[in-house]
Structure prediction request, 952 residues.
Amino acid sequence: MDIRALLFTPALIVLLLGLLSMGSNGRDSVSLQGEGSSFLYPQIQAWASEFTARNPGIIINYNPTGSGAGQSSFLKGVVDFAGSDPPLSRDVWEESWDRVVQMPVVIGMVAIVYNVPGVDELRLDGEVLALIYLGVIEYWDDERIRALNPGEDLPHERIIAVHRSDSSGTTQVFTLFLHKSAPDVWGEDLVGKSIEWPVDDTGRGIGGKGNQGVLEAVRSNLYSIGYVEYAYAIKNNMKTAAIMNREGEFIKPSMEAAQAAALGALDSIPDSPDGDWSRAFQDIVYAPGSGSYPITSWSFLLFYKSYNDPAKADAVRRFIQWINVEGQAHIVDGYIPVPAQVRQVNLKAVEMIHG
Amino acid sequence: MRDWRRVKERIFLAVTSILAMVAVAPLFHIIASVAIRGGGVLYRAGLDFLTSQPAPPGSSMLGGIGPALLGTLWLALLTSAIGIPLSVLTAVFIVEFKDHPLARLAKVFTSSLLEIPTVLIGMLVFLTIVSMMGHYSLLAGSIALAIVMLPYTVSYVERAMEEVPRTYREAGYSIGMTRSQVVFDVVMGIARRGVAAGVVIGLAKIVSETAPLLFTIGSARSSYPMSMKDVFEPGDAVPLLIFQFAQTPYQNWQDLAWGAALILTVIVLALFAAMKLIVREVHL
Amino acid sequence: MDNTGKMPAGDRRLFYSLAPAAVISMGILVVMTVLFIYYSIPAVRVYGAKLITTSTWSPSEYGEPSYGLLIPILGTLISSIIAVVIALPLALSAVFFTEEVLPRSMGSVRSAFASLIEAMTGIPTIVYGLWGLMVLSPFLRDNVYQPLYRYLGFIPLFSCEPVTGSTILTAGILLSIMITPFIYAVVRQSYNQVPRTYKEAILALGATRYEYARILFGMIKPAILAGALIGFGRAAGETVAVALVVGNTFNPPTCILSPSYTVSALIANQFANAPLYPYMVNVLVLGGLILLVLGIISNILGVMYLARVRYVA
Prediction:
């Protein structure tokens, strides 16, 4: 056979398939494309399959590239909805509130995981954590750690502080907590999704990509400490530290502790999905209230108020309605549902979306 | 004196043999690790693994990688349609007109594509094709993959054609063949081993690429692309599924990732084996 | 320079039928370079030379972000050099092993060995990365880095205590495994171009196979250099696998037993959320542009060296 013909065989097949599919009408289903937070991905995928099972003809796809990429693609109009750990910043919200709605759909918690053999219960507060990540506290048996953990047998070993290497909402929540609980030690310039970690200068800092990367680094390095989303900590059976909250209680991450934090921060949520959520995001961290876990956050879905295709708008409305009512029965292990008061606000979005 | 030379030879032979083994050893270790973890998963899931959708995270069910596998097949076909003619013809041009400045530029420019992080190729396609279409699609992914394939296939085909001794060309001309007949019937006929190798290497590379797909195909994991129309819609691919599922904490999704890694490795090795078999029969 | 005018008609027809493919292939890089430059300009305008002479990385959504790529650039250079230094002897040994140690009569064993090395280019880079993280880096830390530090700690390169297996050296070693097949392919091709008569003449002089190898590899030295350069470029551009093992911290890579960063790993880690920060996309694209320029330079040099081999053979 002639080589020239062979070269173009795949192109010919494609052409043929194209001709064959000319007659068919394509699919008569609506598909919604989302993008953003990789933290939200498992929950959205679980909702998507349950939702499609009940609403055949609506397919939901989600691309877990990261909150920043999600917000950027969403504002460019490349996707139908976005998932984002932080809400739109105040500046962006002011420019876009007339076409965008935001809603928290789950609560996230940042668990402090550690790998110190023999130490099964560890208590820490914001200041000690900040000093560890500053590189000031060098050894596990430092007196400031011992003071919080009387009776524990802490080894004289160097602490390896593991952090995220990619830009991440988890880092933002963690550093915001450090700043709010120990403002004199952890300055505002060290709050963000991706920061310059002082501990790296000592050679005892390691960056891991994603929650899984941090977890692997903690697991494979003895005497290390790190922060990951709650689901990763419990699914991997990692030891988690109890963290001191605003009331002075040492609390381990749990469903109840997250909801207590959410209730403690209810005052700052806006009364409409097109309101400014940026303050609410700040306020749930280190929130007041007994029993609340201090490193807690909202995670958001973003939708447009108007879609070109009426069928798409209808699908979006049904999806929002469903996740805020029936969807609450399909929360993935490790994720925390938002309180009913917040869901009431979320449901207002159904009336705001048009084709 | 003579003995010392022989001793040196012995040592040299031993050292080179050991180093040669060290060079291929990781291949076996990697394949073994993937086979052990992925094999157990495939055994548990059975044939459903190839056709079902992934089960929800954290469930005791496994599901499968059907949409991703189908997406990868579409990507391979589309990328071949774009990438094979483009890269083979470019390679022929580079070899045949090697003294022409355009050919020299083409050679340097295409081989430089190898050095770019492939995530940036994905960004290029995002900024051009995806932004223009307004949404993710398998087509955009294929264009990104065709760019990834280009430098590999070009360099292999180029090398294969250069290995063909001059005498064959001269024989072709002496019986009155035109330049293009000599190139495509004589040179490529003899070099078809290398050309096939180049195409297969390119395909093996693109079916296992993740980064160019991150911002181009959209990880549409819930639908099966069936016709050409779906090519303009978001899709999924096996390496992307591995990359994303391996980063979640859920056991059933991590198992899916390992099973998928085994499938992918088998596909790639099968491509190699098929190429070697075809080639052996026409070897001169 | 255009000499199509002097070509016979048949040649000219072939030239013009193939040229479009070549132009499209070249166009990709041109479009990419132009787009990258366009996207880098704002960053260069704001930060200037500080981008490559300093090493801070503190993005901020509201305040004044500051960026410096010095550490990742050094990390890329150092890890790629390590990769080439390790891969070169491996690749040369493998070429010699295939061509000279395996007897000529065992043709199928030879081609099987060559295929194995070729097959290594087909393993997904994500699989290399997972293997590097789970298997290679713990192994290296316990069995290589600890002794290196203990006995050779007085050398600045090994002067830091290896607390983790994710280091610039691990990245270099993993990269060396990944680029060996590429160097192997380049060198083996030139090796086979050396006319049989030369080889027979050397052996007829009574040379041992060690001496024979030295003469032969000496003859194709430019090809070895070319292979090294191409391998270097390949290593500099590798992303996913490196990001998993390099440690991803802004720590100077002057001691290779500590975690550090590479440009490609920085891009892989930061690109997804970069749009949230002023100028971060621009700075990362500039990083990509630097890799691109590095790649083009190593390629041009590589192609030049390879052209030199033809005169020898």
Q: What stands out?
A: Chain B touches chain A through 47 residues (CB under 8 Å). Chain B has a mean pLDDT of 87. The radius of gyration of chain B is 23 Å. Residues 76 and 203 of chain B are 7 Å apart (CA to CA).
